[in-house]
Model the fold of this input.
Amino acid sequence: MKKIFFAILAIFFLTNISNAQSLVNFGLDKTITLPKMNDYQRILGSDSDALYTLRINEKDELYLDLINANSLVKESETQLVMPIMNGINSKFVAMYYLDSKLVLLTEIMNNTSKEKTLYIQQVDYRNGQITGEPKAIGKLTGPNTTVGFKVQLTPNKQNIFVSYNRNFQTYNDEPFFFKVYDPNLKEIYNKTVKLPMTGKAFEIDQVEIGNSGNVYMLARISPDARTAQRMKTVICDYKLLVFNATNGNITPYDLKGKKLQLFDAIIGVDENENVDVFGFMVRKGKDTYEAIYHQKLDKKTGKFRMGDAKKSDYIFTKKDLPEFRASRLSKNMKEIYNYKLLGVTYLENGGAAVIAEHQNYWKDSIKDPQTKKVTYSDYYKFNDILIAYCDPANNMEWMTRIPKSQYSYNDLGMYSSVAFTSVGEKIILFYNDNSSNLKSLQSNNTDGSKYKELSSPSRSGISVVVSVFSDGKFTGSQLFNKNDSYRIMPEFVKEFNYRTYMLAQDGKKVKFVQYTGR
Done:
C-alpha cells in the first residue's frame, strides 16, 4: 500500500510541478494551417469571446479571421472589402477592435487633384462590408501629400488618436492637427496648433496624447548646414513640446546633457501624465555611447523633477563600456552603435525603464557572370537588449544588458527583435533565442562571450520569456514546451483586457497563444 501511495503522490507532485511551470495557454491546441502565400498581418483586438485578426492572401486580399478567445481555435473568416471612392482604391492605414466595433482607417491618394484624404469607417465582421458611409477626417493637398497620417490608440485604449501636419523644410507656422475619434466615429477632440519653432528645421520623432487631451511631442532639431559640415558626427538638438489642451498653450523644454551631448531620445508618459525622457549620450564630436540620459517632467509643477545629482543620468561603468564593442555586435562595424530606443515602460512602484536593442540592416548583391542578372539579399541583425531603470525618487539606478544575437536574411526580420510589457515590478521580455543560451538566462549570466547566435530564426531556436526585476537582475525560461518547434513573432505580442496574446508559427502552421505566466 505504501508503494502505491508514494507512487500516486509522486505522480501528483510531478503533475503539479508541470502545471506550475506552464507559462502559456494553447487553448484546444489545434493548429491553423495557412494556405500558401498567406500571412497574418495584425491582431486587431479582443473581447471575452474572440480575438479579431487580419490576414493577407496570395492576391493581397485581406481577410478577417475570428479566433475564439478561450479555445484559441479559428471560428470563421470573411474577406475585408476595401472601399473604393470616386474610382480610386483605398490604402489600408490601421484597424482596431474597440467597444465591440471594428474600426477601419484608410487613405485615398487622388493624383489628379493632388489630394490625400484619410477616412474612418466601421466594418461588419460578419460579412467584411463597410457599415454606413466612410467619413473623411483628414486632408493633405499639393506638396503636403508626401507627409503621412499618424494613427494610434489613446492611452486608455478606448479611442483613436490621429495626428498630421503640413510639409515644411524650415518651419514657418505650418499647422499641426490633432484629433480623437470614438468607436462610433464621433469626433470628440479637434485641435489645430502652431509650434513655437519658427525658423527651425526639425522632425517630430514622437507624438503622445494623454487622457487629459494634452499632447506631448519630441522634436529633433537639425543643425544648420554650415554647422553640420563642421561636425564629425552630426548631432541634433532635442526639445519636448507640451500642448495644453485646456488653454491652448505650448510649452517648450530644452533637453540637454550637462557634460555630454544627447545623441538620441525617446519619451514615455505615465498614467499621471508625467513625462520621462530617455536617450543615449556621447562626447562632443564622438559617436561612442557614454551614458543614458534621463529627465522627468512633473505635470503638476511643469518643471523637471530633481533627484540625486549624481544619479540624474546613468554613466556607463568600466564593465559596461567594453560590451558595446563585443564581437557578437560587430558583423556590421559601421553600425556598431546603432541601438534603437524601443520604448518606455512603467513599474507598479512608480519606476520607469527604457528598453533599447542593437540592430543592423544591410544589403548585398551577387551578379551572375553568364546571365548578368543581379540578385539582392537583405540581412538583419538584432542583438543585445539594454534596459535602464529610474526609481520613483527620480534616480537612475542601473542598466542591465541582456546579451542576444539574432541573424537572418530575406525574412524582414519577422522572428527577430523583442516584445515587452510590465507586470507589477517586473519587466517581461519575449523573443526567440538559441537553446544553448537558456542556462545563462536562467542564471542571470550577462557574459555575452558565452552566448550563441540564433541564425535564421524562422527555422531554428526556442522562444523565451525573460523577467527583469526592479533591481536589474533577470531570469529566463523557455516559453513553450521543451520540444515545441513553434516560434513567436514579437510584432504579434499584444495585450488586450489584461491578457497577453501572441502568434506562434512553425512554417505555415500557426497557433494563437495566451501568456499566463506572471
Notes: The chain is about 5% helix and 50% strand. The radius of gyration is 25 Å.
